[in-house]
Design a protein that fits this description.
By secondary structure, the protein is of the alpha/beta class. The chain has helices at 27-31, 45-62, 86-98, 119-127, 143-148, 166-180, 198-209, 238-241, 266-273, 277-280, 303-306, 314-332, 334-344, and strands spanning 76-81, 102-107, 133-138, 154-160, 187-191, 213-217, 233-235, 247-250, 288-290. It has a five-stranded parallel beta sheet. A four-stranded parallel beta sheet has the order 2-1-3-4. The chain starts with 26 loop residues before the first helix and ends with a helix.
């Protein structure tokens, strides 16, 4: 099992600006001084809040009849997915199109990668086409960072190996903040397959950075070694892990990433760790139920719990995903748009 250790947070003072603010060259440097979004680890609370505040504006825009805002007109976004993900890729595609970008989905299954081209060759080829932003999902941890070092445009990590999935953590945080009014001081239980989950890692980094109390609940075989170093409490029983929790976040059992025997059976896993009303009864009465999707009903969560219209925020998470990705595309292209505007004036 891998060991995961958190790095020191930055402490630069930043002032959030609304989503409608005109992009100036200095804006993104002062508010979000990063060319890429490769992970949550290393972001500070003001930077995270800045992205969430922008996302709030896009939630409201997406609920209007006219959802489009052509601030990325003339810019090119390439979605480069080495792993299948209908939900995340569609969300990024919709986000880019609503902002007016030219969006291209690269099908890796039919690309030169399948013919033996290396990741670096792919990066060099794509860079020659001058894309403004690349959204990349890859099965190997660190692959997205390597690609970001070889291209001129901004890169967003849409999930790399067991490492991180930053926009998922941001949309989860936005869902929590809109439902609960805050993140600081809440108790969040992240349950299930922690070992193979990049979603868990990004959420742990974000939630602890924002002042939440985070518990991980899983059998020992599905926990990374040294997980405590990330500032979380470790529980092996749902009854103790969910006690008085404000948020219960279930994770998909990623059997496609498992080599060997991690649990006796799926049936036994659901009996011990699947979320049902009996296990949920020890959480707070208004505890919010979350799941990054896709759900395995009857494996990590019971159908009636997942569809509880009063407590489940699973469909809301999908809605927040588009808004968060619009905000990230907006922020990471602001300098480029500002310089283009100055060149025309």
């Amino acid at each position: 099992m891998a060991t995961f250790i958190s790095s020191t947070l930055m402490s630069t003072d930043h002032t959030p600006k609304p989503a409608s603010a005109a992009p100036h060259a200095g804006d993104v440097v002062s508010a979000f001084p990063h060319k890429h979004l490769l992970g949550i680890e290393g972001l500070n609370p003001l930077e995270i809040n800045y992205l969430l505040d922008l996302s709030d504006g896009y939630v409201e825009q997406n609920r209007q009849a006219n959802k489009n805002k052509a601030i990325l007109a003339g810019l090119t976004q390439i979605n480069l997915f080495f792993e299948n993900s209908t939900r995340t890729r569609t969300s990024f595609e919709l986000a880019g199109k609503r902002l007016g970008a030219d969006v291209i989905n690269m099908s890796v299954a039919t690309s030169s990668v399948r013919k033996g081209e290396t990741l670096l060759d792919t990066a060099i080829t794509l860079n020659a086409m001058h894309p403004d932003i690349l959204v990349v999902r890859h099965g190997q941890s660190g692959a997205v960072k390597l690609l970001s070092e070889k291209v001129d445009g901004a890169v967003i990590n849409a999930g790399d190996g067991w490492h991180e999935h930053p926009t998922q953590a941001l949309l989860d945080a936005l869902t929590i903040r809109r439902r609960k009014g805050r993140i600081e001081g809440l108790t969040v239980a992240i349950c299930g397959d922690i070992l193979h989950s990049r979603v868990a890692r990004s959420n742990i980094h974000l939630l602890t950075t924002m002042g939440a109390r985070v518990r991980v609940v899983a059998p020992p075989t599905l926990l990374p070694t040294a997980i405590e170093r990330l500032g979380v409490e470790v529980h092996h029983r749902m009854e103790t892990g969910l006690s008085d929790c404000d948020i219960v976040m279930m994770l998909r059992l990623q059997r496609e990433r498992m080599e060997g025997s991690y649990l006796p059976s799926v049936r036994e896993f659901f009996h011990l760790y699947g979320l049902d009303y009996d296990k949920l009864s020890v959480a707070r009465p208004d505890a919010l139920i979350m799941h990054p999707g896709p759900m395995n009903r009857g494996v990590e969560i019971d159908t009636v719990v997942a569809d509880d219209i009063h407590r489940s925020a699973i469909q809301e998470q999908v809605e927040m995903g588009v808004a968060v990705r619009m905000a990230c595309l907006d922020v990471l292209t602001r300098n480029r748009r500002a310089h283009a505007s100055e060149a025309l004036s």
